């Protein structure tokens, strides 16, 4: 059995992330977490606070973690959310150059979670002062996220973040949720993992706690294929969704199409064909990801897939089977390729490749679709109900 070792760079005054990480890993026997502390005591927008995040002490601690032969090293702090994401990207490069070990950060993990779920509108629950919170909104805007704030807690002492009651964190999450695709609890010293997971069913959107998101991405980078249940959708299904996104982006690039989508019925991962499991878009193309207005299984083209269990290649829509008129009128599609996802006796879903103009699909295009389909099948066998789900 492969054992995965996770190296965590921890703010010195943090009393949350270690116990929460252990709690999230409870019941697994193939993952261990190892922590090294670096001095961080106060969060503000000034030179003294910023100096705490100098790379030198982090690199020294990372080298010590490397002595334990960890599989990944993460900065388990959200400072990149106000210092700028490039600060974290440079830190990860420096850690990997110094240790030869892949690296990430809590901020990058949150952004990766948003990418996996196609989030462009993000609600924020933060413990910081308002000026720090507003800087985070601006930082995320630079990454293509429209962020809205719940009222910040107004705290600057890092140790005190862990004393914020869980009920207050839950209220912030609920306040940040309306009109958002997801909510993020941004701070690894806030006990947000439990309220985040608990509120997801009633809110109907994912809630990304920073500690849980950091653990998810660390497991993912280590190659652990995480499927941790009972702690929210990200730890259960985030890696599967991220791999789907990668497959669809590769298909979009290979075909030069305008949109690729994947629809699946996999209840164990909260997936239903009426909403896409993943989507990749060309420049200026409208997203179809959250449009659940059609009963997808009743569409003419989907019934054709169900009957023939073979790819449907349509250079135009003048012949049967005709797609729904909304696909043409609302989303501007004038040609498409569809391929069924078949596991066992079930047509579990399908991949769609859309073009805004009529086009003759080539053998290279259909080969790219077949390759994407093979990747989806492999992923379902690794993460899904059709294969053995790994505990982590």
TrEMBL record:
Family matches, as Pfam families: Amdase, GAF
Gene3D superfamilies: 3.30.450.40, 3.40.50.12500
Segments forming domain GAF: 240-371
Organism phylogeny: Bacteria, Bacillati, Actinomycetota, Actinomycetes, Kitasatosporales
Origin superkingdom: Bacteria
SUPFAM superfamilies (UniProt xref): GAF domain-like (SSF55781)
Protein's UniProt name: Aspartate/glutamate racemase family protein
Transmembrane segments: none
Record-linked InterPro entries: GAF, GAF-like_dom_sf, Iso_Racemase_Enz_sf, MaiA/AMDase
